[in-house]
Amino acid sequence: MTAETSQTLDRGLRVLKLLADTDHGLTVTELSNKLGVNRTVVYRLLATLEQHALVRRDIGGRARVGLGVLRLGRQVHPLVREAALPALRSLAEDIGATAHLTLVDGTEALAVAVVEPTWTDYHVAYRAGFRHPLDRGAAGRAILKGRQGRGPDAGLALTHGELEAGASGAAAPLLGVSGIEGSVGVVMLADTVSERVGPRVIDAAREVSEALR
C-alpha cells in the first residue's frame, strides 16, 4: 500500500476477488483468514458491499458475489471491444475474411466485436450479438481448448460448416487475461482454411490478450 491508495477500498476489492473465485461462497472466518484481518473488519466490509448489492449472504451466512456486479459487468463488453478492434481490423484486412472477438456468456459463445474486410468482393456476414453453443464453431471450440491450459498453437480450432453451410472458421483462445474467457477468429466462405490463416489468427489472439492485460 502507498500513501495514494485506500486500504479499505483495497480490502473490499480483495473480498470481491476472493468471492468471485469460489462457487460456494466464503464465511466471515474464512475471509478473515485469507485477508489477514479480524472478523470485525470483514463484517464492516461485507455490510458496505451488501448495501451496493455487490455481495449477498445466504441463510448459512456464507458470502457470495451479488447481482450488483452484473450492472458493472454490462460496461465490460464495450471496453473489451474497443481494446480488440485494432487487432481485429488488421486480421480482417490481412486474411480477407470476417474477424471476430467472442466471449463466454454462461454456457454460450457470444460475438462482441466483428470487423469485415473492406477489399473483398464477398465475405461472411457475421454480426455482434450472435450466440452459439461453446462446443460448436471455431470460436467456442477455441475457448474450450484454452481451458485445457495448453500452448496457443494447441488452442487453435478449425471448423467447417458447423454454424453456416459452406463457411469455414479458425479461432484461437485469449490467454493470460484475468476474468475474461474468449477467442479471436475469422470466418470465411471456403471449403478449407489455408495454412497461413492459423498462425495469423494466433498472433491476433495474442495481440488482443496483451491489450486486455
Describe the structure.
The protein is α+β, with helices and mostly antiparallel strands and 213 residues long. It folds into two domains: 7-65, Winged helix-like DNA-binding domain superfamily/Winged helix DNA-binding domain (Arc Repressor Mutant, subunit A), CATH 1.10.10; 73-212, Beta-Lactamase, CATH 3.30.450. Helix content is 40%, strand content 21%. It has seven helices and eight strands. The strands form two sheets. It has a six-stranded antiparallel β-sheet. Strands 1-2 form a two-stranded antiparallel sheet. α2 packs across α3 (39-51). It is elongated, with a radius of gyration of 21 Å. The mean pLDDT is 90.
Order of helices and strands: HHHEEHHEEEHEEEH
Principal-axis shape equals elongated
Largest sheet: 6 strands, antiparallel
Nearest-integer average pLDDT: 90
**CATH superfamily membership of the largest domain, which one?**
GAF domain
* Uncertain stretches: none
What does this entry show, briefly?
The chain has 213 residues and is an alpha+beta fold. It has helices at 7-20, 28-35, 39-51, 68-73, 76-95, 138-146, 197-212, and strands at 55-57, 63-65, 98-105, 108-115, 131-133, 157-160, 167-173, 182-189. The chain folds into 2 domains: 7-65, Orthogonal Bundle (Arc Repressor Mutant, subunit A); 73-212, Beta-Lactamase.
